[in-house]
Write a structure and sequence with these properties.
The protein has 422 residues and is mainly alpha-helical. The chain has one domain: Sodium:dicarboxylate symporter (Proton glutamate symport protein). Helices cover 77% and strands 0% of the residues. The protein is built from 19 helices and no strands. The chain binds aspartic acid. Aspartic acid binds next to α16 and α18.
Length: 422
C-alpha cells in the first residue's frame, strides 16, 4: 500500500477507534471516567499510549521545522540572489496570500449573514477564556526583524527565521566563489534534512492514528449539537473554499488539473487535520510542494514557510462566521462598515501569529475588540473549536500550496511534467 493510502487508512481508523472509546468511557458529572474498564481505557490507552505516541510524533515534526526552513530558504535565496525575480516572487506571494484570505473571510461573512447561525441562541458562555491584548500593527511589523538569529530559531519565530535566511542566502550569492563551499554545504544539508522528513513520514500512519484516536476519544460531540448551525456553517464555507475556490483559482492560473492537485495534497491535509498546526506540518508541506507538485525550491522555500505563518484562510473563515454568529447572538448590528473592518483586521491579524493549534481563537478576540463586539462571545464557541481547528488547518495548508504553485507557474518555475506524474 502506498504511504498516502496508509495515512488515510490510519486517519479513518483513528477517528473510528476514538469515537468507540468516547462512547465506551462513560464519565461522571465532573467529567472523570467511571471506575473500572472506562478508567483503565482512559488512563492507559487514551492518556497514556495514544497521547504519548501522538506527542512524540508532533514533536518530531516540530523538530524539523526550523532546520528545514533555514537550510532550504538559504539554498533558495542563494540561487535567486542575483535575479531581480526575487522581488516579484515575494510580491506575488504576499498579494495572493492577502487576496485569498480576503476572499475567504468575505465568503464566510456572506454565509454567516445569510444562514444566521447565531439567531435565537441562548447565551451560555464558558467564562474561563481569557483575552489577551492585541499587538499593534507597528509591533507586528517590528517583530518580523530579528536581533538575534539564534534566539529566533530557539523560539521558533518563523518570520524572523525567514528574514535571517533570506539575508544569508543573498549574501552567499553575492560573495561568489568565496562562498562556494558554504553553498555546497547548505545544499548537501538540505538533502539530508529532506531525508529526515522522509524517514519521519514513514511513521506518520502510527502517529496520525494515535493523535486522532486520542482526540476523538476526548471530544464530546454534545457541544457540536448545541452549536450545530454555527459548526456546519463554518464547515460548509471551509469545504467550499478549500475544495471549490482553490480548484477554480488553481485551474484559472495554471491550467493544470485541480483534482490532481488536491489528490497530491491528501496526505498533507491529513497531517494538518491531525496536528491542527500549520507549523508542525511544514516539513511535509514543503516536501510535497517541491517533490510532488513540482514547485522549484526557489519559490517553495520562501512561500511555504511564509504561508504557514501569514496565510490562514481557514482561520479567517472561522473568524468571519464567528463574528456574524456573535453579533447575532448578542443582537448587535455592526453594519457593513463593521464587516469591512472585520475583513481588514482578520486579514492583518493572521500575519505574525504562528500556525499552532487554537491560535485562531486568540486572534478572533482581537477582531471582536476592533468592531466593538463583546469579547466574551469567544467563550460561546470555544467548545466546538478543536474540531474546526483541525479542518481549518487543512484549508490553511492547502492555500499555501496552491499559492506557491501559482506563483511558481507564473515565474516558469513549476515543473509541469513532475506535476502530471502520478
Ligand atoms: N491551527 C491553525 C493553524 O495552525 C491556526 C488556527 O486557526 O488556530 O493553521
Amino acid at each position: 500500500m502506498s504511504l498516502t493510502k496508509r495515512i488515510l487508512l490510519a486517519m479513518a481508523l483513528g477517528v473510528a477507534v476514538g469515537i468507540v472509546l468516547n462512547l465506551t468511557i462513560s464519565t461522571d458529572a465532573e467529567g472523570r471516567p467511571d471506575a473500572g474498564l472506562g478508567q483503565w481505557l482512559q488512563l492507559f490507552l487514551v492518556d497514556g499510549l495514544f497521547d504519548g505516541i501522538g506527542q512524540i510524533f508532533v514533536k518530531s515534526l516540530q523538530l524539523l521545522v526550523v532546520p528545514l526552513v533555514f537550510v532550504s530558504l538559504v539554498c533558495g535565496s542563494a540561487a535567486l540572489g542575483n535575479h531581480t525575480r526575487m522581488g516579484s516572487i515575494a510580491l506575488k506571494t504576499i498579494l495572493l496570500y492577502m487576496m485569498t484570505t480576503g476572499l475567504a473571510i468575505t465568503l464566510a461573512l456572506t454565509a454567516g449573514t445569510l444562514i444566521k447561525p447565531g439567531e435565537g441562541i441562548e447565551l451560555q458562555a464558558d467564562t474561563s477564556f481569557e483575552v489577551s491584548d492585541a499587538p499593534s500593527l507597528k509591533e507586528t511589523l517590528v517583530g518580523i526583524f530579528p536581533s538575534n538569529p539564534v534566539a529566533a530559531m530557539a523560539e521558533g519565530n518563523m518570520l524572523q527565521v525567514i528574514v535571517f535566511s533570506l539575508l544569508l542566502g543573498i549574501a552567499i550569492s553575492r560573495s561568489g566563489e568565496a562562498a562556494r563551499a558554504i553553498l555546497d554545504f547548505f545544499q548537501n544539508l538540505n538533502d539530508v534534512v529532506m531525508k529526515m522528513v522522509l524517514l519521519l513520514m514513514q511513521l506518520a500512519p502510527y502517529g496520525v492514528f494515535c493523535l486522532l484516536a486520542r482526540l476523538f476519544a476526548d471530544l464530546g460531540l454534545g457541544a457540536v449539537l448545541d452549536l450545530a448551525w454555527y459548526f456546519f456553517t463554518v464547515l460548509f464555507v471551509l469545504l467550499l473554499h478549500g475544495l471549490g475556490v482553490y480548484s477554480l483559482l488553481f485551474k484559472f492560473f495554471t491550467r493544470l488539473s485541480p483534482l490532481m492537485f488536491l489528490s497530491k495534497m491528501r496526505a498533507v491535509m491529513v497531517f494538518g487535520f491531525s496536528t491542527a498546526s500549520s507549523n508542525a506540518t511544514l516539513p511535509v508541506t514543503l516536501r510535497t510542494v517541491e517533490n510532488d507538485l513540482g514547485v522549484d525550491n526557489k519559490v517553495a522555500s520562501f512561500s511555504v514557510p511564509l504561508g504557514a505563518t501569514i496565510n490562514m484562510d481557514g482561520t479567517a473563515i472561522m473568524q468571519g462566521v464567528a463574528t456574524a454568529f456573535i453579533a447575532q447572538a448578542y443582537g448587535i448590528d455592526i453594519g457593513w462598515t463593521g464587516y469591512l473592518l472585520v475583513v481588514l483586521t482578520a486579514t492583518l491579524a493572521s500575519v505574525g501569529t504562528a500556525g499552532v493549534p487554537g491560535v485562531g481563537m486568540i486572534t478572533l478576540a482581537m477582531v471582536l475588540q476592533q468592531v466593538g463586539l463583546p469579547v466574551e462571545g469567544v467563550a460561546l464557541i470555544i467548545g466546538v473549536d478543536r474540531l474546526l481547528d483541525m479542518v481549518r488547518t487543512s484549508v490553511n495548508i492547502t492555500g499555501d500550496a496552491m499559492v506557491s504553485s501559482v506563483v511558481a507557474n507564473s515565474e516558469g518555475l513549476l515543473d509541469r511534467e513532475r506535476f502530471e506524474q502520478r
